[in-house]
Design goal:
The complex is a heterodimer of chains A (292) and B (279). Chain A is mainly alpha-helical. Chain A is built from eleven helices and no strands. In chain A, helix 5 (125-139) crosses helix 6. With 279 residues, chain B is α/β, with parallel strands linked by helices. Chain B has a single domain, classed as Rossmann fold (3-Layer(aba) Sandwich), CATH 3.40.50.300. Helix content of chain B is 33%, strand content 27%. In chain B, the strands form three sheets. In chain B, strands 8-9-10-5-11-12 form a six-stranded mixed beta sheet, sandwiched between helices. Chain B has a four-stranded antiparallel beta sheet with strand order 4-3-6-7, covered by helices on one side. Chain B is globular, with a radius of gyration of 19 Å. The two termini of chain B are 37 Å apart. Classes of the chains: A mainly alpha (292), B alpha/beta (279). Chain A binds chain B through residues 105-106, 173-186, 189, 193-194, 198, 290-292, and chain B through 79, 81, 84, 86, 108-113, 116-117, 119, 121, 123-126, 135-136, 139-140, 174, 185, 188-189, 192.
Chain lengths: 292, 279
């Protein structure tokens, strides 16, 4: 007795294959739609902004006149911001990830912490802005400084870095740790000599992607009250400053049409910065990735 | 030290080379590991039950038994590697050279420096061959390049792989074949100059020729080290070991000289297992 009837199988074959093709095209359309939107956006921004994009735009301060307006203060301000955010968030984030993955015992409390760190990554950025305003700007009296904004942004991207670092650390095979412990290595030696070298590509990739999120975030800066029109560069960590997304936001909401084009030029600068950072992340991942 | 063993044997002592006599009579072989009423639980699962075993130095002790009988758990208890599993509980004692390794102030790092381990799956680090071998000496504080060079060469020669890799010490150990990787792991273990080497099914992931090489290697180095090898391959146990322990359901059924176990076992279950009736 055969359970599979060949004639029935052959009869259904055509419709099965057709259905298969149909789904393939649907998924392709979904992809193309996203791509199309991106292309429209890019074309619009480049065609509007490229006219204003020149050396003067990079070296001028903000101005009432669109043709004199420049992005110098915002660009340098964003770099200052990154100089605070990068070390603070990476050191705290990787430290937390190492603790959770390598030291923390498996119990209810630690499971609770692990789950909630992932949830924190989904908290809206404006909430972090309010947190920063309350703690750093007011309670600690740091004002609208690079340091206050930097700490706020660090808190914002910390969960993302922790989760990325945890995953990178977890991806190091346990056999590697066993080999190290088996020779009498301490936990610290095992972490610094075996676990971290293997996890570094994943950690850095995650960190750079998180940093590029921080560089584009506007809401926390608005809440903190970062000024927009500055005619000077920050002199230190406690100076006032402005940042790229703030500047772009300000230009975009001005009534004169020309400022819309200036704003597009600013977006181009911001996007170039993001592409560069993401390329570094991809480069690091490909260059240092280890296979087991 | 335990003096209840009356075996007599002649032993070429590597430490006495250069003195007037390099051969001396040892009346008792020292016990390296003595397990007394040792129990181990994974959570609620009673994995090792009342283990009593004396393992002598400079011998190859094979541990055989069907899957899940506790043989791997037992050798992982000997260097306390089993504690990496958080839910493990132990009772009773295992002494290494007369000192209970589960004693409160016994540091695992100290124990594992004396008791090296080779794992089931070759697990070299994704580093150069040189850095793999130098890993152990380096964590114990040796920085002198010349000393490290010597240790690397001596260990690779000891693991009979020097000639195969001497021209590519700076290449990644992952470029080697599985069998070579396992011998690199043995060399890496020799580099910390251990007293005992624990081997947890070291050839189960290897092809027959690589297996043969590892077995020959075990024969060559057993005069300098005490070796405890877990194997699911009974022929292997018969070929390379001096003594064999048969584990079943977390208990030691029989422990004796290997030829005795394989020719005239006293327990019916041992006989059933080695004749292939189960397992």
């Amino acid at each position: 007795m055969k359970y599979i009837d060949e004639t029935v199988v052959m009869k259904r074959m055509k419709s099965r294959l057709k259905f298969n093709k149909l789904w393939k095209s649907l998924f392709l359309i979904a992809t193309l739609f996203a791509l199309l939107c991106l292309v429209v956006l890019l074309v619009r921004i480049v065609s509007q902004g490229s006219g204003y994009l020149n050396i003067d735009f990079l070296t001028n301060f903000a101005s009432r006149f669109p043709e004199k307006a420049g992005i110098k203060a915002a660009l340098i301000g964003s770099l200052w911001l990154m100089a605070v955010v990068a070390p603070v968030s990476i050191i705290l984030g990787v430290g937390t990830a190492i603790y959770l993955e390598e030291y923390a015992k498996q119990n209810k409390f630690n499971d609770f912490i692990r789950t909630n760190i992932s949830n924190l990554a989904g908290v809206p950025s404006i909430v972090f802005g309010l947190l920063g305003l309350t703690i750093f700007v007011r309670m600690l009296g740091l004002g609208k400084s690079v340091l206050a904004a930097g700490f706020t942004m660090s808190l914002l991207i910390l969960p993302v870095i922790i989760v990325a670092a945890q995953e990178a650390i977890r991806a190091v095979p346990n056999e590697q740790r066993e080999a190290s412990y088996g020779m009498g290595a301490t936990k610290w030696q095992t972490i610094t000599r075996v676990v971290l070298p293997a996890a570094i590509p994943g950690i850095l990739t995650g960190s750079i992607l998180a940093l590029s999120r921080a560089i584009g975030e506007t809401a926390p800066l608005v809440v903190i009250g970062i000024p927009v029109i500055l005619q000077f560069l920050p002199e230190g960590l406690l100076s006032e400053f402005t940042a790229l997304p703030m500047q772009i936001y300000d230009w975009a909401k001005r009534p004169q049409e020309e400022f819309l084009y200036v704003s597009s030029a600013g977006i181009i600068v911001l996007m170039i910065l993001l592409v560069v950072m993401n390329s570094i992340a991809i480069f690091i991942r490909n260059k240092f990735q280890k296979r087991y | 030290m335990i003096k209840n063993d009356t075996e007599k044997l002649t032993l070429k002592s590597s430490e006495n080379v250069g003195e007037e006599t390099s051969t001396k009579i040892i009346t008792t072989k020292d016990t390296v590991f003595q397990s007394k009423n040792f129990d181990l639980w994974y959570g609620d699962h009673h994995a090792l039950k009342d283990i009593n075993l004396d393992i002598k130095e400079n011998e190859v002790t094979a541990i055989i038994g069907p899957s899940g009988c506790g043989k791997s758990t037992y050798i992982k208890a000997l260097n306390r590697m089993v504690e990496l599993v958080p839910i493990v509980k132990t009772n009773g004692e295992i002494s290494y050279r007369g000192r209970n390794i589960f004693e409160g102030n016994y540091e695992v790092e100290e124990l594992r420096t004396k008791v090296g381990m080779v794992f089931q799956k070759p697990n070299p680090f994704p580093k150069s061959i040189y850095d793999n071998i130098a890993y152990g000496p380096r964590i114990h504080g040796i920085k002198n390049k010349r000393v490290l060079d010597e240790i690397v060469e001596k260990s690779l020669r000891g693991a009979a792989i020097w000639d195969e890799v001497k021209d590519r010490l700076n290449q990644n150990a992952y470029g080697l074949s599985g069998g070579q990787q396992q011998r690199i792991c043995i060399a890496r273990c020799l580099a910390i100059e251990p007293d005992v080497i624990l081997m947890d099914e070291p050839t189960s992931a290897l092809d027959p020729i690589s297996t043969l090489k590892v077995e020959e290697l075990v024969q060559e180095i057993k005069h300098k080290y005490s070796i405890i090898i877990v194997t699911h391959n009974m022929q292997q146990a018969a070929r390379i070991s001096d003594k064999t322990a048969f584990f079943l359901n977390g208990e030691v059924v029989e422990f004796d000289h290997t030829d005795k176990i394989f020719s005239t076992p006293t327990d019916q279950r041992t006989e059933d297992y080695i004749s292939g009736r189960f397992g």
